[in-house]
């Protein structure tokens, strides 16, 4: 359960290929910036299917739920982030 009750919420996106270090970087940043929420797009993947043998295919991502959760966080509402089971 993630929520932020701040007047000015900033959303920052971090992109890169698998194995580039996005998670490690996000975890490091969160250690010296208390109060931030880190959300992984991996958690919005449908782990029950694969496309062409690729678990990272963008067609597996639930973009509607991701965008709703980001919008709710921006508005200061709590969200439930799905947990992707590899």
Would you give an account of this structure?
By secondary structure, this protein is mainly α. Helices cover 27% and strands 0% of the residues. The longest helix has 12 residues, at 63-74. The model has no long low-confidence stretch (mean pLDDT 83).
Terminal residue distance: 21 Å
Multimeric state = single chain
Quantity of strands, as a count: 0
Helix content: 25-40%
Average pLDDT, to the nearest integer? 83
* Largest sheet, strands/sense/barrel: none
Global geometry: globular
Order of helices and strands: HH
* CA radius of gyration: 14 Å
Counting DSSP H or I runs of 4 or more residues, the number of helices is 2
Structural class: mainly alpha
* Beta-strand fraction estimate: under 5%
What can be said about this structure in brief?
The protein is mainly alpha-helical and 86 residues long. It contains two helices and no strands.
Keywords, separated by commas or semicolons:
0% strand; mainly alpha; 86 residues
């Amino acid at each position: 359960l993630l929520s932020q009750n701040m007047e000015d919420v900033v959303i920052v996106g971090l992109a890169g290929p698998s194995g580039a270090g996005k998670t490690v970087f996000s975890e490091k940043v969160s250690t010296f910036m208390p109060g931030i929420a880190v959300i992984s797009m991996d958690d919005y993947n449908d782990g029950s299917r694969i496309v062409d043998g690729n678990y990272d295919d963008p067609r597996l991502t639930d973009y509607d739920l991701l965008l709703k959760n980001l919008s709710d966080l921006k508005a200061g509402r709590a969200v439930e982030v799905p947990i992707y089971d590899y």
